[in-house]
Amino acid sequence: MFQVSMISDEDILKLKDLPIWFTHAKTDPVVVPDDFVVPTYERLAKVNPNAHFTYWDKVLDHTGTQKNADGTPFEYIGHWS
């Protein structure tokens, strides 16, 4: 994991032809999206038309196996989802 300031323009250009898809949850308290994935994706998307990003608001259990006491879907910690 690298902060965007540690990724050089040359590093970004090495990935310009690689199809890549980032996924991240806004609720990740460990790898803070605004410090890592968001700026990295924004830089890469400028040179790579095959860079994509799915940015989840939160991650809920939709299988029905994990529920809160009130029966609503359990929300996983963003980093571990």
Number of strands: 4
User: What is the first-to-last residue Cα distance?
Assistant: 17 Å
Our estimate of the beta-strand percent is 15-25%
Structural class: alpha+beta
What does this structure look like?
By secondary structure, the chain is of the alpha+beta class. It has one domain. The chain contains 2 helices and 4 strands; from the N terminus they run αβαβββ. The longest helix has 9 residues. It is elongated. The two termini are 17 Å apart.
List keywords for this structure.
alpha+beta; 81 residues; single chain; two-stranded antiparallel ribbon; two-stranded parallel ribbon; 20% strand
Summarize the structure in short.
19% of the residues lie in helices and 20% in strands.
Would you spell out the secondary-structure blueprint of this structure?
Elements: H1 9-14, E1 20-25, H2 37-45, E2 51-56, E3 59-60, E4 75-76
